[in-house]
């Protein structure tokens, strides 16, 4: 039998994490103002943020099924990403529940978009969770609402990676939103579902 030789990782997961933590005082420090403004917008949502340090206790997962191919086609024709459509639908639903225009959700990115840090050969769970606040103007059309949310989503620095790093370095004191939206993405579209996390959200 032939022996398969595996390549040695150039950047092990532990080294990747150390580099991220070191970036808290360098690349990500400039994001502090952005996240503080996010905190102010989240405060307008009232009881939709967790008081716990981690914000992940007693989490309940709900799964919704839909035709992924039609969903992606709709986004493509309208010029929006699937996540942006889901965010709009989620914001409209939450607004109907708590009666406020502003809503806050916790989003998740793959966590590998760090300036100057190549994690191509790093094996590990690098996802990043971060808060996101959205406004749904009831007087706007669905297209306008989605466009507004897409514009706000595009302003998130480093796709949210810096939030968790700054929080771990105790440079931020911001709670996670109680509701978490996780879209599995195009590669997982065959499963035809996405997960919607609910952490003691009061209805």
Please mark out the parts with pLDDT under 50 across 5 or more consecutive residues, or reply none: 187-203
Q: What is the succession of H and E elements?
A: HHEHHEEHHEE
Structural class: alpha+beta
Determine the mean pLDDT.
75
User: Rough shape?
Assistant: globular
- Gyration radius, in Å: 18 Å
Give the beta-strand count. 5
Helix content: 25-40%
Question: Distance N terminus to C terminus?
Answer: 61 Å
Q: Strand content of the residues, in percent?
A: 15-25%
Q: Treating each run of at least 4 consecutive H or I residues as one helix, how many helices? A: 6
Order of strands across the widest beta sheet?
A: 1-5-4
Main pleated-sheet profile: 3 strands, antiparallel
């Amino acid at each position: 039998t032939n022996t398969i030789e595996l390549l040695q990782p150039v950047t092990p997961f532990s080294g990747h994490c150390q580099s991220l933590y070191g970036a808290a005082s360098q690349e990500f420090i400039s994001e502090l103002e952005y996240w503080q403004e996010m905190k102010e917008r989240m405060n307008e949502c009232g009881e939709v943020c967790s008081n716990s340090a981690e914000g992940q206790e007693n989490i309940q997962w709900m799964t919704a099924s839909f035709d992924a191919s039609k969903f992606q086609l709709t986004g493509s024709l309208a010029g929006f990403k699937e996540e942006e459509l889901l965010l709009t639908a989620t914001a409209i639903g939450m607004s109907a529940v708590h009666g406020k225009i502003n809503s806050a959700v916790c989003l998740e990115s793959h966590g590998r978009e760090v300036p100057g840090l190549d994690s191509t050969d790093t094996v590990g769970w690098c996802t990043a969770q971060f808060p996101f606040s959205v406004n749904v103007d009831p007087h706007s059309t669905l297209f306008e609402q989605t466009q507004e949310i897409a514009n706000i989503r595009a302003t998130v620095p480093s796709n949210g990676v810096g939030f968790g790093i700054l929080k771990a370095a105790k440079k931020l004191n911001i709670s996670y939103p109680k509701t978490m939206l996780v879209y599995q993405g195009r590669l997982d579209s065959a499963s035809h579902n996405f997960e919607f996390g609910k952490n003691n959200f009061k209805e």
